[in-house]
Amino acid sequence: MIVLDTGAILPRRGGIFGALSDAFWRHPKLLVFLMLTPPVLWFGIIYLGSLLALLLQSFYSLDEFSGLVVPEFTLSTYAQLFRPSNFDIIVRTVLMAAAVTLASGIVAFPIAYMAARYAKGKWKALFYLGVMLPLWSSYLVKVYAWKLILAKEGILNWVFESLRLTPLLDAFLSIPVIGGNSLSVSYTGTFLVFLYIWLPYMILPTQAALERVPVNLIDASGDLGATPFQTFWHVIFPLALPGLVAGSIFTFSLTLGDYIIPNIVGSSRQIIGQAVYAQQGSAGNIPLAAAFTVVPIVIMGLYLWMAKRLGAFDAL
Amino acid sequence: MSSETRAPWPLKLASAAGLAFLLVPLLIIFVYAFTTEERSFVWPPPGLTLKWFAVAWGRTDLWSALTLSVQVASISTLIALILGTLCAAAVSQTQFFGRETISLLVILPIALPGIITGMALRSAFSIADIPFSFWTIVLGHATFCVVVVYNNAVARFRRTSGSLIEASMDLGADGFQTFRHVILPNIGTALLAGGMLAFALSFDEVIVTTFTAGQQQTLPLWMLEELIRPRQRPVTNVVAMVVVLVTTLPMLLAFYLTRDGDQIAGSGK
């Protein structure tokens, strides 16, 4: 038999753990505060601190004669960004990012749509793994695989040769800007690798958005006489748009900030990431590298602001 | 009732082509690891051999790069597990004003391009005169690994009903007992999944690392060096294949651990 001799209010617990436990129960905010302190300190000091340092560096300049950083406030480093050679780099990068984003939206949509609406059971798992395996495989290995595919003696050329289509490929490669000696040293090559590597980032949010489209909405649209195409265009696509925008944040931002892919598969004309790496490394010009790094931050800031207005963050 | 359950064929075709585009390049890596060709990327491979596995095994530079990568990834994962769980617990417990800001702050290092995180750390090290070391690499890695742990833990906390915790407290457990016997078993697999993803993320990271490593070479840095200035292409092929296996296995495992219910936080990579 259990005799209930205690009142509704239990006595306080003894010991330091008991006291602590009671204190947390009485003051839930204290616990939240204690839990938040380490991560906030870490991110505040290391991450935000570093971002501030980056901003600070971008207002310094490099003494052209001594090659040393002058720690005095100046806007001259930013002015250098507008020199034609540097400004070209920025324009080129934004164009590349836009092209990659657009293409990945087009390639990703059918995959996401199929996975969200039609794939069931085993097929669903296959789609899931089909996206996750490339996503989680090593980044460098994926770039390497494309080097193997695009190289002059590589697979793609072999395919074209086997199909007797080599003249077609040569004609394409002779187009001035997007062509080159071979696919692995052309913009087209860079574009393909970017597309491949960021594609999963586009598929996942798009699929998440499509999965939330209620089926009865689609049925209602059909019942009200819409053709499948009209249903798609007026019902499904607008509801999937926030997902596509969320995905485009990744593809756009990742392209803006990559320097490895164009280094390995690409032409000699730089994009922002390569410029940053070259300036901070061999050139030793950290201020200019920092100023270059601020460019994608500003572009992404604008982009995120627009994406937020389109409601993309609900799909993340 | 759903009117159509069968996909139209153009959609099937487009999505199948898309899946092939995603998966075929990975398969190619497996073929090249066995090629007999040493100098170029000739396709199809002129012959198949196992010899390069032995050569790769004997390379000491490879082993030291691997060791460094494992050490960095382990410590970064540990830090990420602690910070990510604390953050997720705090955010899911209460509605306080800074919630959104905290989520944003955690996601930022990975949402912003790698060169920004890398260059920011590089600038800070330069201003504070911190020499590059093992710990500068860990600092960067831990910062962007927190988000995967955080995402997994937040998703799980959301599914764990608060009444469980209240019931435990009502039955006389104190806060620590509740954590040990109720909360931890509930979020355990999510943390395991998050931790493995964090490990894979750190193990594979190259862009931030190029800005925060001095003379040390992690495995991705070794690989990058080989891609730019190849010394022995077949060895690189072998390493590439092994790396694909090593990085995708934790992912597959994480998939099985969290397959019922919440999604693993792949979108946050």
Question: Top keywords for this entry?
Answer:
heterodimer; A: mainly alpha; two-stranded antiparallel ribbon; B: 269 residues; mainly alpha; MetI-like fold; 11 helices
Structural commentary:
- The complex is a heterodimer of chains A (316) and B (269).
- Chain A is mostly helical and 316 residues long.
- Chain A folds into 2 domains: 22-70, no CATH class; 83-315, MetI-like fold (Orthogonal Bundle).
- Helix content of chain A is 72%, strand content 1%.
- Chain A has helices spanning 15-26, 28-58, 76-81, 84-118, 121-136, 139-150, 155-162, 166-173, 187-211, 215-223, 228-256, 260-264, 272-280, 286-309, and strands at residues 61-62, 69-70.
- In chain A, helix 4 (84-118) packs antiparallel against helix 5 (121-136) and helix 9 crosses helix 11.
- The longest helix of chain A has 35 residues, at 84-118.
- Chain B is mostly helical and 269 residues long.
- The two termini of chain B are 37 Å apart.
- The model of chain B is unreliable at 262-269 (pLDDT under 50).
- Classes of the chains: A mainly alpha (316), B mainly alpha (269).
- Chains A and B meet through helix 1, helix 2, helix 4, helix 5 and helix 6 of A and helix 1, helix 3, helix 4, helix 5 and helix 6 of B.
